[in-house]
Amino acid sequence: MRPQDGAELEGVRVHAFEVPTDGPGGQEEDGTLRWDSTTLVLVEAHAGGQTGIGYTYGDVSVAAFVESALAPAVRGADALAPPAAWERMFAAIRNAGRPGAGAMAVSAVDVALWDLKAKLLGLPLFRLLPAFHDRVPVYGSGGFTNYSLDRLAGQLAGWVEQGVPRVKLKVSRRPDEDPRRLTAVREAIGDGVELYADANGALTRKDALYWARRFAEEWDVRWFEEPVSSDDLAGLRLVRDEGPGRLEVAAGEYGFVLKDFAALLDGPAVDCLQADVTRCGGITGLLQVAGLSAARQTDLSAHCAPAVSAHAFCAVDRLRHLEYFHDHVRVERLIFDGTLTPANGALVPAPDRPGLGLEVRWPDAEPYRTHGSRGVSGRSSWG
Questions:
Q1: Where are the alpha helices (DSSP H) in the chain?
Q2: Quick one: which of 18, 58, 231, 374 has the fewest CB in 10 Å?
Q3: Quick one: pLDDT at residue 379?
Q4: pLDDT exceeding 90 applies to what percent of the chain?
C-alpha cells in the first residue's frame, strides 16, 4: 500500500501458550525464583489484509487484560500510527494499572501494531524504525542455579563455540556453591570470553559488595546484574560506586514506565541500563527509553525476547547488546518460523522479510495453548 493510504485496525486476537522448561526435574531456578514453565502471550492485529503479531512473557492473565481493556481501545485506530494507539491504550488502563501486567499487555499489542505497519508497507521492521544499526550483538544467557556443573559449563561453552563472545550465569541462590560454579565456567570458556553474573536481586547490600569484589578479582566477571533488588536504588548505587572498576552494575528488566528507567539513571544507580521491549510499553515505549539513555550517555542492553529485540534495538543509539536467553530462544523456536541464530556474535534481522519476519507455527503451538482459539477453520472474528 502507499504510505498516504489509511488502514483501519479491524481488531485483535489474543492467545497464550505455556511451554514447560527443560531444566533438571522440569524446573529452573535463579537467585530468587523457581519455575517449571514459560508462558508466551501472543497478540494478532489485523488491518488491510495483513496481520501483525506481537507478544510478551507473563501470566496468562495478561491475555485477558488485552481482551478486556486494550482491544476495545484500539479497534478502529489507524494501523499506520502505532504511537497514537499506544497513547490510547495507556489512557484506557489508567485506573486498571499501568505498571506490571498493564504495561506488558500494552507491549504485546504495540509490537503487533508495529509489525502490522511494517507488513502493510512491505518493509522489515528494523528498516521501518529509525535504525542506527543493522545487527544486535548478543550474550548467551542461562546457567541456572540448579544445573549440574557439567550442564552449566557445557551450555556456556556451547555459546562460545557458536561465536558468542560473552556469556552469563545465574548466581546467589546458594552463594557458597558459586565459587566452584564460576571456576567450572571460566575453565570451560577460557580467559578471552566476557563472563557475566546475574543475582536476580538475591543479595543484601553488603553481601553484594563482597561478592562483586570476589567475582571480579577471582573470575574476571565484568557484569553484575541486579546484585540487589531493582527496588533498592541506594543498594545498586553502593555496589556501582564502591565495587571494582571493571565490573559493571546493570538493571532495568523490570522497568515498565519511563519513570522506572529515569530512577535507575538518576545518581546513577547502574553502569548499563536494561530494557525489555515486551514489558516497557513495546517498541513505542522502548524508543522513549532509548532517548533517555542517550541523553544520560548510558548504554542500553536488551533483556530477552530475541525475535522482537533483534529488530527493536536496532533503533537504540546507545546499544550495548541483547540477552540471548535460553528459555525464550526455546519458546520462540517452537512457536515461530523465522527466528534468528547468532552469526559472529550478533543477531542480524533479515532484510527481505516484512515486519518481524515471523510466522506462527500453529500446529506446533496448539498443544501448549492455555488461552484463546483460532476459531472455525483456523479463523475467527476480530475482537
A1: 61-65, 71-74, 82-92, 101-121, 125-128, 149-161, 178-189, 205-219, 233-242, 258-265, 282-295, 306-312, 326-335, 362-365
A2: 231
A3: 41
A4: 95
Q: Are 271 and 320 in contact (CB under 8 A)?
A: no
Q: For residue 210, give every residue at least 6 positions away whose Cβ sits within 8 Å of its Cβ, in sequence order, or none.
A: none
377: confidence class by pLDDT, cuts 50, 70, 90: very low
Amino acid at 258: L
Answer yes or no: is pLDDT of 3 > 50.
no
Give the model confidence (pLDDT) of 181-226 as tens digits: 999 999 999 999 999 999 999 999 999 999 999 999 999 999 999 9
- Closest by CA position to 365, among listed 19, 21, 38: 19
Taking the mean position of all CA atoms in its chain, how far away is CA 13? Answer: 22
Q: What is the DSSP letter of 139?
A: E
- Written as nine digits, the cell of 220 is 574476571
Average pLDDT rounded to a whole number, residues 241-246: 96
Grid-cell match 476480530, residue found: 382
How many alpha carbons lie under 13 Å from residue 52 in its C-beta half-sphere? 34
Contact at 8 Å (CB) between 158 and 342? no
CA–CA gap between residue 203 and residue 100 (Å, rounded): 23
Model confidence at 378, pLDDT cuts 50, 70, 90, reads very low
Bond from prior residue into 268 cis (ω within 30 degrees of 0) = yes
- For the CA atoms of 325, 327, 331, 332, the dihedral, rounded to the nearest 10 degrees, stands at 0
Average pLDDT, the chain: 96
Instruction: Look up residue 236 and give its amino acid.
Output: L
For the chain, the C-alpha Rg in angstroms (whole number) is: 20
172 has pLDDT over 60? yes
The whole-number pLDDT of residue 382 equals 66
In the chain, the amino acid numbered 348 is: V
Instruction: Answer yes or no: are the C-beta atoms of 262 and 280 closer than 8 Å.
Output: no
Amino acid at 364: D
Q: Contact at 8 Å (CB) between 341 and 307?
A: no
Under 8 Å CB-to-CB from 26, ≥6 apart: which residues? 20, 36
pLDDT at 380: 46
For residue 374, the model assigns a pLDDT of: 84
DSSP 349: -
